[in-house]
Amino acid sequence: PIWIGFFSCQLVWWFPTCITYNIVFIYFFVTDRPKLAENYTEDTWLKLRDAVGAIQNSTSIKYNLEELYQAVENLCSYKVSPTLYKQLRQVCEDHVQAQIQQFREYPSLDNLSFLKRMNRCWQDHCRQTIMIRSIFLFLDRTYVLQNSLLPSIWDTGLELFRTHIVSDSAVQKRTVDGILEQIELERNGETVDRSLIRSLLGMLSDLQVYKDSFEERFLIETNRLYAAEGQRLMQERDVPEYLHHVARRLEEENDRIMSYLDQSTQKPLISCVEKQLLGEHMTAMLQKGLSILLDGNRLTELVLLYQLFSKVKGGLPTLLQFWRDYIKSFGGEIVCTPEKDKDMVQDLLDFKDKMDNVAQSCFTRNEGFINAMKEAFEAFINKRPNKPAELIAKYVDSKLRAGNKEATEEELERILDKIMIIFRFIHECGAAFTSKLEGMFKDMELSKDIMIQFKQYIQNQSEPSNIELTVNILTMGHWPSYTPMEVHLPPEMVKLQEVFKLFYLGKHSGRKLQWQPTLGHAVLKAEFKEGKKEVQVSLFQTLVLLMFNEGEEFSVEEIRTATGIEEGELKRTLQSLACGKARVLNKNPRGKDVEDGDRFNFNNDFKHKLFRIKINQIQMKETVEEQVSTTERVFQDRQYQIDAAVVRIMKMRKTLSHNLLVSELYNQLKFPVKPGDLKKRIESLIDRDYMERDKETPNQYHYVA
Question: Which of 3, 297, 400, 617 lies at a C-alpha separation of 20 to 30 Å from 136?
Answer without folding.
Answer: 3
